[in-house]
Design goal:
alpha+beta; six-stranded mixed beta sheet; three-stranded antiparallel beta sheet; flat; binds iron/sulfur cluster
């Protein structure tokens, strides 16, 4: 647990905090609950999973003074209910008031209506991702003790799916406006007098101006230039000595940090989307610029020249635009899902949509392995997870990767790498025309070597038109992980390798549950942190459903008869 929460936090975990206790159940409550049929999920859950671990785990969040807080185990159940039904904070508040099954599961009296939706949201932020991760691991530990996962023959499977949160994707002009507004709005909330001073000192009339949607029009380009100049003016105003001193004196440290964070976002957006242009003669924009007497003119960087890893939202600096292929675009995040062949979700990770799938694999597997001291027989993944670097890294912690090997196809549709044979002793490739490579060059950024054939051989070759369309000699790429790939290809061709690839499909069912049942495909969140937190809660809900499916002798239906549970 120290790995997740840190030693300092663990040291105070045993501190006793008194939580709010509800009055003893009245006779009327007992009458109602005893007549209520068993719920197929909530009534059986507590018999199999003990949620009281959350009370000691989260005691670090409370001082022990003042009003007694609601028990964290109760609040964890509220968050699980929210994800199970896919409710907003207000809807979950209503549900707790009106649903007797939920009231009975939470141990609340029939007439209870104390939870406020804002408390639910605040509590989620207070617990944070570390606490929810710890809760997820506690539930996994209980599932392990029930024998639901962790078998020595178990394999782990990793896959990702797109998660498009409720983020708008504004155009560049609107994005800059939005980032500027956030800087000013924060200043207004923190210190109204300094905000008034900023408005008096910096031109901000471009903030609320609307422009033509045609980016090529002179009017739009001039408005864009003016807005960027004003945004830089605002950032420079914050750097003035007297303004810095004023902010230092009047704002709290947290307010200053938030302001600097928002300024950095604005700066990044400006640098990624605009650049200064030198004046040119006879340009129509120049004449417009002269009219407005601006000294510096900025232009929008053409989209193909902009950085790939640029911000798409002023609200969430971690969100990115990712492209799976030419038609599938994700605006926001991807959820990495690590589950076992036992169908238990072991770990989830929210990553920016443009991050390569394989990047998170090692850290996710290592986290589960080091926490539970359990290693799988293999890690199954698709081609995106089969890179040699990840195979080598996972091999260092004793986890072999089973994934298809990326075939070296030729960019201009010439002969692919499979048609060339590699001679390890001579360290050269032989082509279909029986010619050998004559030289090689290392390319560090591609983690491999480029082998070159003799130019005269290729020029006189009868197979040239099928082999290459380039003017130069044919080259072939030899990866630094050649040996690793060859071993992987050999294993993939075996019967075990083929069975492993079939087992990989099990992850799709878990992806569907997380995406559709738990609402992670289109979550109502606006930050990576909130999405990560929902990811852990969704993983818990999916695992709890599995626990009941596996542990109950038969799947409980909705039985309309008197309850056997005693209260
Ligand atoms: S073009 Fe060059 S590399 Fe290709 S088959 Fe002919 S000789 Fe070999």
């Amino acid at each position: 647990m120290e790995d997740i929460l840190g030693p300092g936090v663990c040291a105070v975990l045993n501190r006793r905090v008194r939580y709010k206790e509800f009055d003893q159940m009245s006779f009327a409550d007992m009458m109602v609950y005893s007549k209520l049929p068993e719920h197929p999920f909530w009534s059986h859950l507590e018999k199999k999973i003990d949620f009281s671990f959350a009370d000691s785990l989260c005691s670090v969040l409370y001082s022990g003074r003042g009003q007694h807080p609601y028990a964290p185990s109760l609040k964890l159940k509220v968050h699980l209910i929210q994800i199970y039904y896919g409710l907003s904070d207000r809807q979950v508040e209503e549900r707790i008031i009106s649903d007797l099954f939920i009231k009975r599961f939470l141990g609340l009296p029939v007439d209870f209506f104390g939870f406020d939706h804002s408390t639910i949201g605040l509590d989620r932020s207070r617990m944070g991702t570390a606490m929810f991760k710890a809760c997820h691991f506690y539930i996994l530990a209980q599932m392990y003790s029930h024998g639901l996962w962790g078998d020595h023959s178990e394999k782990w499977i990793i896959d990702s799916f797109a998660s498009n949160p409720a983020l708008s994707k504004p155009r560049t002009y609107r994005l800059i406006q939005h980032a500027m507004i956030r800087v000013l709005q924060h200043l207004k909330r923190s210190h109204r007098a300094i905000y008034q001073l900023a408005l008096a000192s910096v031109e901000t009339d471009g903030l609320y101006a609307r422009t033509s949607v045609q980016p090529s029009t002179a009017g739009h380009m001039l408005a864009f230039s003016k807005l960027v100049a004003q945004a830089y003016g605002l950032l420079q105003w914050f750097q003035l000595e007297d303004v810095s001193a004023l902010l230092q004196k009047e704002l709290t440290e947290k307010e200053r940090e938030t302001s600097q964070h928002l300024q950095r976002i604005l700066q990044d957006i400006l640098e990624q989307n605009s650049r200064p242009v030198p004046p040119t003669d006879g340009d129509p924009i120049d004449s417009a610029r002269n009219q407005t007497e601006q000294e510096i003119v900025f232009e929008k960087i053409p989209s193909h020249e902009r950085a790939k890893d640029r911000l798409m939202s002023a609200v969430d600096p971690h969100a990115r635009v990712g492209r799976k292929n030419t038609s599938t675009v994700t605006c926001g995040y991807k959820l990495q899902n690590l589950c076992g062949t036992s169908s238990v979700v072991l770990n989830v990770n929210a990553v920016p949509a443009n991050e390569h799938d394989r990047e998170a694999m090692y850290a996710m597997a290592k986290e589960v392995q080091s926490f539970f001291e359990i290693s799988p027989r293999a890690m199954l993944g698709d081609t995106a997870y089969g890179h040699g670097l990840q195979r080598t890294m996972l091999a260092t912690i004793g986890i072999p990767v089973v994934a298809p090997v990326i075939l070296g196809s030729h960019p201009s549709k010439g002969y692919d790498l499979a048609r060339f044979s590699y001679d390890k002793e001579k360290d050269c490739y032989t082509c279909p025309n029986e010619k050998d490579t004559v030289k090689k060059r290392h390319i560090p950024q591609s983690s491999g070597w480029q082998y070159y054939f003799e130019k005269t051989d290729c020029e006189s070759c009868p197979l040239r038109s099928a082999c290459t369309t380039g003017k130069a000699e044919r080259r072939v790429f030899h990866s630094d992980y050649y040996e690793v790939y060859e071993a992987a290809k050999d294993y993939n061709a075996t019967i075990s390798g083929k069975l492993d690839r079939k087992q990989r499909m099990l992850v799709e069912r878990k992806n569907q549950e997380l995406k559709n049942d738990c609402g992670l495909e289109r979550p109502l969140t606006k930050s990576r942190k909130a999405l990560q937190l929902k990811g852990y809660l969704a993983a818990m809900v999916v695992n709890l459903k599995l626990t009941l499916r596996k542990l109950l002798p038969q799947r409980p239906g909705f039985i309309r008869r008197r309850n056997a549970i005693s209260y």
